[in-house]
Amino acid sequence: MAWEYRIFKDLHQIPREEHVFPGTPLCAGCGGLESLRLAAKVLGNHVVYVNAAGCFTNLASFPFTPLDASWLYTTMGSAPAGAQGVRDALDVLIAKGRLPQDEDVKVVVLGGDGSTYDMALSSTSGAITRRLDFYYFCYDNEAYGNTGVQLSPATPYGARTATSPCAVRNPVGAVQEKKDIFEIWRAHRPPYLATVSPRFPLDLEEKFARAAAYRGPKLFLGFAACPTGWLFDPAYTPDVARLAVECGMWPLKEAIDGNVVHTYLPKLSPIEDYLKLQGRFRHLFEPTVQKDALAHIQATVKAYWDRVQQGDSV
Amino acid sequence: MIAVRFHGRGGQGAKTASRILGTAAFSEGFTAQDSPIYGSERRGAPVSAFTRIAKEPIRERGIITRPVLVVVADVSLIGDPAARMLEGIDERTAVFVNSPLTREELRAQTSLPGRLTTLDLTTIAVREFGKRGAISALLGAVAGRLVGLRPESIDRAVAQELADLGVDASLIRRNQTAARHCYEAVPLVPVEKDVRGAPGPTSLRAPTYDPPTRGTASITAGPNSAIRSMSGWRTFRPVLRPDLCNGCWLCFANCPEGAITIKPDGKPAVYYPHCKGCLDCVEVCPTDAMTVERETEATKTT
User: Fold this and answer.
1) Chain A window 86-125: which residues touch B at a Cβ cutoff of 8 Å?
2) pLDDT of residue B6
3) What is the mean pLDDT of residues B10-33?
């Protein structure tokens, strides 16, 4: 059963209004900013962003802000708790009649992968369990990027980071597998859960538009190609984002009440196409090709899509 | 002591250049010290790095406020107050600027003080590497030549420092070739070898506090970041050829900054003060209507 676009069918439907304005000090070619800008076009400006410390902290560095929405800054581990506070305050004020119903706003958590996969995991789990009515947008650049690209639980096998260097004893770099946060979240059965990539803008816009119909936790994992941390020229951000999807390493999917549907069936081109673009994987190709590591990555991807083909839940 | 200050934009290689210079000097028997300013060193944001070279042990630490040589990797830094490139520069300071302009043209455009010298490193790098990339080896070689280090030590330092960063062997060789070319091509200016006057005492001043009614910041401002110009971040700019544009909006959708707007006729337009020069729009354009031009103006107004 192919997934169909119901709301966004043409690129020309992407709203021209901006809600994330230019002039941020984020890196040129930031894949996370690219996703956020597209997401905000659907979310609009009746929003409180609850930001977990991370790269996006630089978005609103006083006295400047690129947002025409509100902004609350929290620690890495407590953004969903902050969202709960904001939501509760809004509910109480509306119930007491001190805030008109039409001034209600969406509560959107912004968190990097360090926060999402690691420090804020328990806080997020609690918020989903409590059925908190909020959005969660994770910009996943697969490392603790803002502090100098250290290993995070989102770092994939074989990637080189500041704390998983390619060394004689450990030539592949990161030896752990990327934590499957999608499945951890899905186990909570949230009403809406999806992965997005900015190189698939219609898919992204469609998912944010669909999520609006659900009450409760609406969770998004955004692929954030990172020129600074992944060591590629910023011009290749769109190519990296496209190849991650086409190689099958970043499946585009949504899960409504826990039922997974893949929204795009990739070509499953060889993973080398994706890895070779990035400096963080170069040690897998030079000075010698680490065939075992590459075969392992390819096998992991293949195993995933085999399960999808067989119609298993993932 | 020779105090050298490097200015670049994140990703250009100012920090590595300071390391190459320090390593080369150390291998010639000097004491050397190098350090970057640590902060949010984002790609495109102003970065500086410092190298001290001396025959005797170096007791001084920290940032260099009175350099004898300043190496500028990007001409747009001159006009960027955040880069603090002009700090501590007078007519005796040697100033190298990566620019296609001659020293006279640059002086006329920028009224920079100091003993100016220029070389177009970006063109050399693009020719040698086939694409844009870090020019750390080239900056290091120029600095090494100006302070009087030998080409062989620069060669070795380039290999060592780039290998430490995981750069592959063939690219290191191309860096060495380009570095040697720059070493020989850079027009020489004298660099003062002595300590440039003891750093004067910093005058401390008690801050004056405004009453809270005046001094409290407005936290209800709208999206005001758009008043900042990002033009200085670019080393290359995307240029639209309207005749080739098919109006697909992919560039508009994929611009991370929102620097591309759609005109009433449905065609995109790049608003340059908002463009950081990532060139994502060039990559996604299906009809090659977005082309690349190098930034050359010293003071970018658009």
Assistant:
1) none
2) 96
3) 94
For A30-34, B119-123, B206-210, which range has the lowest pLDDT when averaged over its residues? B206-210
Q: Chain A window 203-262: which residues touch B at a Cβ cutoff of 8 Å? A: 227-228, 233-239
For chain A, say whether B54 makes contact (Cβ under 8 Å).
no
pTM (2 decimals)?
0.84
Instruction: List phi, psi (to 5°) of B273.
Output: -60, -20
Question: Does position A30 have pLDDT exceeding 90, yes or no?
Answer: yes
- Kindly list the residues from chain B whose CB atom is less than 8 angstroms away from the CB atom of residue A11: 248-250, 253
How many other CB atoms are found less than 10 A from the CB of residue B170? 9
Nearest to A282 among B10, B166, B225 (CB): B166
- Host domain of residue A176: 15-309
Nearest of B274, B191, B194 to residue B232 by alpha carbon = B274
- Picking from B150, B185, B220, the residue at the C-terminal end of a domain is B185
Query: Residue A160 sits in a domain of what CATH number?
Result: 3.40.50.970
Of the candidates B11, B132, B221, which has its C-beta nearest A65's C-beta?
B221
Structure confidence at residue B134 (pLDDT) = 85
Q: Which residues of B touch A287 (CB under 8 A)?
A: 168-169
Domain end, chosen from B153, B185, B217, is at: B185
Contact A228 B169 (CB under 8 A): no
Residues B9 and B127 in one domain: yes
User: Touching check for A25 and chain B: CB below 8 Å?
Assistant: yes
Is A9 among the domain residues? no
State the ipTM, two decimals.
0.92
- Domain match, B156 and B245 both: no
- The whole domain housing B127 covers 2-185
R_g over Cα of chain A: 19
CA distance A268 to A263: 15
Query: Does the pLDDT value for residue A291 go beyond 90?
Result: yes
CA nearest to A227 within chain B: B43
**CA B17 – CA B163 distance, rounded (Å):** 14
Nearest-CA neighbor of B186 among B77, B78, B88, B72? Answer: B72
Q: Which residues of B touch A23 (CB under 8 A)?
A: 225-230, 274
* Confidence band of B199 (pLDDT split at 50, 70, 90): low
Residue A174: inside a domain: yes
Q: Are residues B10 and B84 in the same domain?
A: yes
Number of folded domains that form chain B: 2
